[in-house]
Amino acid sequence: MLELMGSSLPAFIVVTFLAMGFSALMTGVGLATTWRPVWQAIPYCLLLGLVDRFLVWSLFEGELLLLSGYLIDTALLTGVCLLAFRITQVRKMLTQYPWLVERSGLLSWRDKKNA
Predict the structure, then answer these.
(1) Cα separations in angstroms, 103 against 17, 29, 32, 81
(2) In this predicted model, what pLDDT tens digit does every residue of 7-40 receive, in sequence order?
(3) Which among 6, 66, 81, 104 could disulfide-bond with 110, CB atoms 3.0 to 4.6 Å apart, if both were Cys?
(4) Domain locations along the chain
(5) Model pTM score
(6) Helix ranges restricted to H, the chain
(7) Rounded to whole angstroms, what are the CA distances from 18 to 10, 51, 102, 108, 112?
């Protein structure tokens, strides 16, 4: 699996999970906090994937121009970003409109019965 990504396991953990994963998490939170549409997360995550490839190459001597590594890393970062976006969006709906909506799970809300 690591051959497809073009990096070692420590490089994947340090750069992709810790550094870029945190960046993707904060991107999702930032987009949801400012009520941006979810599609805006995709271009940001594509750019985060490019930065991830560059950091793996420059810090850990991984392969820079490896399509499979870029796709795997970008898919992981996009998943983190979208999950953070949805959790933040649900939290904001519940705190800003408590008379209209109630929680119906970690990733969803529903209209209150008496509203």
Answers:
(1) 29, 19, 17, 21
(2) 788 888 888 899 999 999 999 999 999 999 999 9
(3) 104
(4) 2-111
(5) 0.89
(6) 2-5, 9-11, 21-33, 41-60, 67-96
(7) 11, 13, 33, 27, 38
- Least Cα distance to 51 among 21, 26, 80, 79 occurs for 21
Q: Which letter, b or e, does each residue of 99-113 get, where b requires 16 or more Cβ atoms within 10 Å of its Cβ?
A: eebeeeeeeebeeee
Give the integer Cα–Cα distance in Å for 7 and 56.
7
The tokens for 6 are: 């073009």
Place of tokens 């999702």: 28
Q: Both tokens of residue 18? A: 């810790």
